[in-house]
Amino acid sequence: MSDLDLTLTLTPEVRDKLQGIAAQLNRPVEECVRQAITEFLDNWDDYMRTVRELEIGEDGRPVLRAVND
After folding, report:
1. CA–CA separation, 2 vs 19, rounded Å?
2. How many helices (H) and strands (E) does the chain have?
3. Does residue 26 fall inside a structural domain?
């Protein structure tokens, strides 16, 4: 599989934050963007897995209820 090149248009605020973080980490902006995308995809996968598990449900799975419900 080959790499995908992207071109992004960022607001000045996002650009400045990204450049600031890259400078603090002493890393290239591109590396920070790659890491951010990778972490977003990992988090999204975890979220969707949790949603699917909750939709499937399990008989006998404990359900917490608030007092006075």
Report:
1. 27
2. 2, 0
3. yes
Domain that holds residue 32: 12-55
16 within a domain of the structure (yes/no): yes
- Tell me whether residue 2 is in a domain: no
In a domain, 39, yes or no: yes
Confidence of residue 59 (pLDDT cuts 50, 70, 90): low
- The one-letter amino acid code at 46 reads D
pLDDT-derived band at 67 (thresholds 50, 70, 90) equals: confident
Closest CA to 8 of 28, 24, 30: 30
The CA distance from 10 to 12, in Å, is 6
User: How many domains is the chain partitioned into structurally?
Assistant: 1
- For residue 12, the model assigns a pLDDT of 98
